[in-house]
Amino acid sequence: MIKVLTGNEAAAYGALLCKPEVVCAYPITPQSRIPEQIAEFYAQGIMGGKFVNVESEMAALGYVTGAALSGVRVFTATSSQGLAWMHEGLHWAAGSRLPIVMVNVNRPMGAPWNLTCDQTDSLSQRDTGWMQFYCESNQEIIDTVIQAYRISESLCIPAMVCMDGVYLSYLSETMDIPEQIQVDEYLPPYRPEHKIPGGGYKLYDKSPSFSEPLGSDFMRDRYNLHELESQCVQTAVDSDEAFFRTFGRRYPPVEEYKSRAADVVVVISGSAAGTCRYVVDCMREEGYSVGMVKIRMFRPFPKELLRQALAGKNKIAVIERDISVGQCGIFYQEIKWAMSGFKETGQIYGFIAGLGGADITSGLIRDAIMSTINSPSPDRDVYWLGLDI
Amino acid sequence: MNITNEEIKLRFSTKEYMQPPHGFCPGCGVALTLRYFLKAMGGNVVLVMPPGCTSPSVLNPKRSLVSGDRYIDVICSPFGSTAIFAGGIKSGLVARGDLKTQVVAWAGDGATFDIGLSGVSGAAERNEDIIYVCNDNEAYMNTGNQRSSATPIGATTTTNPPPGTKHESKKDIMWIMMGHQIPYAATSTIAYPDDLMGKVRKAKDIKGFRFFHFLAPCVPGWGFRTEQTVKLSRFAVQTGLFPLYEMENGAVSINKKRKSVKLEEFTKLQRRYKFLGKEGLAALEGFVDQQWNRLNRLAGTDGDAVSS
Amino acid sequence: MNVIEIVFQGEGGHGSVVAAKLLAKAAAKSGFQAQSFASYGALRRGGKVEGYVRISEEKIPMHSKIYSPDYLVIMDESLLESACRSDIFKENTQILVNGREPKADYPELKGRDVYAVDAYGIAKGMGLVIPGGMPIINTTLLGGLVKILGNIKIEHLLDVIGTSTPKPDKNMACAKAGYQGTNSFFEESSDDLSLEDHRSENGNGSRHPVYQTEKMAKCHRCQICYIVCPNLAITVQMDPFGFEVNKEICTGCGICIEECPRKAISWEGE
């Protein structure tokens, strides 16, 4: 069914279609429309299960963690400060092997206050063990929520679906809402073997007895989780394949857009990837040998897929909407790590753009590409885009 | 005196849910509280616990909470999240069709009065169908006796060590909880096992958020001889420091008179009150008076009377 | 580099961690570089606790635990059996035990330098006991260890104890007595220390309540003893009616004795 929806509404529809039993979310700009829309679904009687208003984001995650421990499908959503408020709980959920799906609307971390767009919030949580997906469009948001449940429940690792604040959360796009019957076919009901009471609290053969507060075999448990996470990328690929068969749309963890034979490739993520797609098309028509590689799955990082996508490219321009202050861009850092030692790696340029909601315009992307083409080699880790310095 | 077997009526049932050995300190007040609670509650529970004295003690050296031939589930939560987890677990159980299993948040004073207070308040405001137990030993005992907002005025802990003492009065957690629309809240302590177990049995059949505040003397933390645990719990009530009362749907009733046992009889037995001094004792007495004034107003009673 | 490694092996309540700290401070006073830290088992009473000390003339770079010490201090003789493992002993590992005489054969100890001191007896004799707990034995053992080590001056240990412990005079006296009273483990002890049961009256399991037949006449079957036991060590027998104490589980806290309204229970041996 075709509808024109904002990113927030797309997320809410995604949750509706996946039929979680317990939904708990705390409002925060620019995410508030998500719990509001879901509350409306409940009020209208079209959503089953239970929707709970809680006193904080820490409570929102804690509540769905409790429900997930009982063995039911759950949903929550937040943004920036709220995500940070959940930090302890994020580690806890991953360590507990719970298939929680959370939508995060990317908004800058204060101080100072900024209620718009930047990805430092979720990227700051990259060590928690959660899978992370970055969406380019509202269609991708609803589709990713659905995919996330399938991937997450097959491995019992929590998943974060990220969308840019303002640029997707408040932006309306035409999109195709999947039919419930299709979603039911793609996403079977969640019936875990582990549950309390009586099912015991040993979740899986390889998981810890997480009720032992002193972590009797902590290192082995982390090893087990690490090994399990190594299956995430392939599971995402397989789930995407199945998604394509059911819905006719696909989202590879790393997407190569006209980059096969390109000399210069932009690596980018989120809503700006859409703008970049447009710039690539324009510049190719002008005769430039450019392409785009979009990173959609950031955690676990799809290292092999990225290496394949960037192999043989002369120059790689990473444009990102975040910064690890004092260091460099986080995508840049991960890409340098992924390509390190790979014999076919080109030169990597790191551009920071769009912090605090600054617009990543086609002009800015073009500037980045041109300066990459025109410079013999990168002479610094951070090139600032759109800033008068 | 010869009593025949037929004449013996067992005052207490011999059904137990704690299977020793457990890891609680010798003479531990929390151990007794948990023992009584489970005797009254039965084994059809899931316990949710923050970091504190109980979880390591019932999971090491072995799991010691059992019901028949299975272990009672103990779920560990982060420090401030116990009430939150408990509500979520209950919702999940109900969503799965399990309406029988009760979810009990078993937390200490640190997790309840301090870091988890917003979680407890939120759960109470939502009237989550759980039992929340605060077993109060009046400091962060498991980590070595650091103060909490449940530590009484005039007591010493490692974070307000002698010659200083705590300057702030104990928070009135029951007062805070009664400020929420919950069906049941009650205090009790181990020196009154019938009172404690009776209240738990009552709460078991009530739906909605039920809150317990149990005082649990701590041997190494308060600094007293191990055999005095129950005696100190009794003195706490008899001095008026820890009144026994309950609130049912807004109506408050006092269960035990404030007998006139002097505060010094209680404080002199504990190392933590060694630096109380005259001023500290006066402050503690002031606290007790203020608490009883408030309680009497709520209960509609005078002086030290027991509600009819 | 020449680093001396020392392990204090004990359980919660023995003071292994403080012993390690005090020894390191004393070593520093004697002009050495020193390091002390600890390793814990379950964070409850009775959990295993090891105190580690490294002493050297040069700066000590390593920060891992000590697995094969040069000196092993056993804080309680009951731990000797589990500690006697040839895989932890170096060729010249010397052992100091808090105990009086060997009660069993320890083949791993043959040919080794093993010393003993009755730290419980000394501490109790000095009145150095935690109310509601055990005698404080670590300073006595430190005195004995300093004697065996030979490189740290006893005056420096006493200085450190005098300024770092809550009952300095008693602790220093214990350290001195430990220094003097440490002998080979296999010798007959010639010290005229009290042979009285050195364990505390409270809470460490060596004393248990009993229901004596004469006193049982006072019992009116109220079951209070049964209900007040935090360890569920007392069970009710129905036929014939009586109470039984499980000595393996009883920690000797004494609540049952205190709470019995008829004083029908007493300590074993009284």
Number of strands of chain C: 11
- Rg of chain C: 21 Å
- What integer is the average pLDDT of chain A? 93
| Most residues in contact: chain pair | B-C, 44 and 42 residues
Strand residues, percent of chain A: 15-25%
Characterise this structure.
The complex is a heterotrimer of chains A (389), B (308) and C (270). With 389 residues, chain A is an alpha/beta fold. Chain A contains 14 helices and 15 strands. A seven-stranded mixed β-sheet of chain A has the order 3-2-4-5-7-6-12, sandwiched between helices. In chain A, strands 9-11-10-13-14-15 form a six-stranded mixed β-sheet, sandwiched between helices. In chain A, α13 (330-339) links the parallel β13 and β14 (347-352). Mean pLDDT of chain A is 93; it is low at 200-215. Chain B contains eleven helices and ten strands. Chain B has one domain: 3-Layer(aba) Sandwich (Rossmann fold). Chain B is globular. In chain B, 36% of the residues lie in helices and 15% in strands. Chain B is an alpha/beta fold. Helix content of chain C is 28%, strand content 20%. With 270 residues, chain C is α/β, with parallel strands linked by helices. The termini of chain C are far apart. In chain C, β2 and β3 form a beta hairpin. Chain C is elongated. Chains in contact: A-B, B-C. At the B-C interface, α1, α8 and α9 of B face α8 and α9 of C.
Layout: helices, strands, pairs:
The complex is a heterotrimer of chains A (389), B (308) and C (270).
Chain A: E1 2-6, H1 7-18, E2 22-24, H2 33-43, E3 50-52, H3 57-69, E4 74-79, H4 80-85, H5 87-95, E5 101-106, H6 120-123, E6 131-134, H7 138-155, E7 159-164, E8 172-176, H8 180-186, H9 218-229, H10 232-247, E9 254-257, E10 264-268, H11 271-285, E11 290-295, E12 297-299, H12 303-310, E13 315-320, H13 330-339, E14 347-352, H14 362-374, E15 383-384
Helix pairs in contact in A: 1-2, 1-7, 3-5, 7-10, 8-10, 11-14
Chain B: H1 29-41, E1 45-49, H2 54-59, E2 66-67, E3 70-71, E4 73-76, H3 82-95, E5 102-108, H4 109-115, H5 117-125, E6 131-136, H6 173-178, E7 184-189, H7 193-204, E8 210-215, H8 219-223, H9 229-238, E9 245-248, E10 251-254, H10 263-267, H11 277-299
Parallel strand pairs in B: 1-4, 1-5, 5-6, 6-8, 7-8
Antiparallel strand pairs in B: 2-3, 7-9, 9-10
Helix pairs in contact in B: 1-7, 3-5
Chain C: E1 3-11, H1 16-29, E2 33-40, E3 48-56, E4 71-74, H2 80-83, E5 94-98, E6 114-117, H3 119-126, H4 138-149, H5 154-164, H6 168-180, E7 183-184, E8 209-210, H7 213-216, H8 224-228, E9 234-237, E10 242-245, H9 255-259, E11 266-267
Parallel strand pairs in C: 1-4, 4-5, 5-6
Antiparallel strand pairs in C: 1-3, 2-3, 6-7, 8-11, 9-10
Helix pairs in contact in C: 1-4, 1-5, 3-6, 4-6, 5-6
